[in-house]
């Protein structure tokens, strides 16, 4: 039986009674070491840039930026809301919760050197570039952040 199945699927190997394809997926998951490095660089650079943004947005007196343990929280206060950007190590993703556009999950694309939302092909930095200037009422340039595709 196993031989006949393997003959039908030549790019498959049997591992403990499970079949695994040897053909890579369309969206290969980045290796753990690269993920950790790129994720940390991305979150730290975003934290630094958001600190600068909030400092220069005088109408956002109660705004606050915190970055700890892989979670970046940008609270713009009422009526703007809070952005949460965090590492999701088991999935090797960055997750974003936006008060404007809702939750999104970003995968790191090695070829583009950027975090991409697979449902619309937009980068994390592009979403921030589209939404945050409306809150801070100022022009911004997220291309200065690490792994930006703006």
From TrEMBL:
<keyword id="KW-0813">Transport</keyword>
<keyword id="KW-0410">Iron transport</keyword>
<dbReference type="GO" id="GO:0008198">
    <property type="term" value="F:ferrous iron binding"/>
</dbReference>
<dbReference type="GO" id="GO:0051537">
    <property type="term" value="F:2 iron, 2 sulfur cluster binding"/>
</dbReference>
<keyword id="KW-0406">Ion transport</keyword>
<keyword id="KW-0408">Iron</keyword>
<comment type="similarity">
    <text>Belongs to the frataxin family.</text>
</comment>
<keyword id="KW-0809">Transit peptide</keyword>
<dbReference type="InterPro" id="IPR017789">
    <property type="entry name" value="Frataxin"/>
</dbReference>
<keyword id="KW-0409">Iron storage</keyword>
<dbReference type="Pfam" id="PF01491">
    <property type="entry name" value="Frataxin_Cyay"/>
</dbReference>
<dbReference type="GO" id="GO:0004322">
    <property type="term" value="F:ferroxidase activity"/>
</dbReference>
<keyword id="KW-0560">Oxidoreductase</keyword>
<dbReference type="InterPro" id="IPR002908">
    <property type="entry name" value="Frataxin/CyaY"/>
</dbReference>
<keyword id="KW-0496">Mitochondrion</keyword>
<dbReference type="GO" id="GO:0016226">
    <property type="term" value="P:iron-sulfur cluster assembly"/>
</dbReference>
<dbReference type="GO" id="GO:0005739">
    <property type="term" value="C:mitochondrion"/>
</dbReference>
<dbReference type="GO" id="GO:0006826">
    <property type="term" value="P:iron ion transport"/>
</dbReference>
<dbReference type="GO" id="GO:0006783">
    <property type="term" value="P:heme biosynthetic process"/>
</dbReference>
<keyword id="KW-0350">Heme biosynthesis</keyword>
<dbReference type="GO" id="GO:0008199">
    <property type="term" value="F:ferric iron binding"/>
</dbReference>
<dbReference type="InterPro" id="IPR036524">
    <property type="entry name" value="Frataxin/CyaY_sf"/>
</dbReference>
<dbReference type="GO" id="GO:0006879">
    <property type="term" value="P:intracellular iron ion homeostasis"/>
</dbReference>
<dbReference type="GO" id="GO:0034986">
    <property type="term" value="F:iron chaperone activity"/>
</dbReference>
<protein>
    <recommendedName>
        <fullName>ferroxidase</fullName>
        <ecNumber>1.16.3.1</ecNumber>
    </recommendedName>
</protein>
<dbReference type="InterPro" id="IPR020895">
    <property type="entry name" value="Frataxin_CS"/>
</dbReference>
């Amino acid at each position: 039986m196993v031989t006949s199945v393997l003959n039908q699927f030549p790019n498959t190997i049997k591992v403990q009674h499970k079949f695994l394809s040897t053909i890579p997926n369309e969206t290969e998951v980045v290796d753990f070491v690269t993920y950790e490095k790129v994720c940390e660089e991305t979150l730290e650079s975003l934290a630094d840039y958001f600190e600068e943004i909030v400092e220069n947005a005088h109408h956002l007196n109660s705004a606050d930026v915190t970055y700890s343990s892989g979670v970046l929280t940008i609270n713009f206060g009422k009526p703007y809301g809070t952005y949460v950007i965090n590492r999701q190590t088991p999935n090797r993703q960055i997750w974003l919760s936006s008060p404007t556009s809702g939750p999104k999950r970003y995968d790191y694309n090695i070829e583009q050197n950027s975090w991409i939302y697979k449902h619309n092909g937009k980068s994390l930095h592009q979403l921030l570039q589209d939404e945050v200037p409306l809150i801070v009422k100022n022009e911004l340039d997220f291309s200065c952040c690490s792994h930006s595709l703006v």
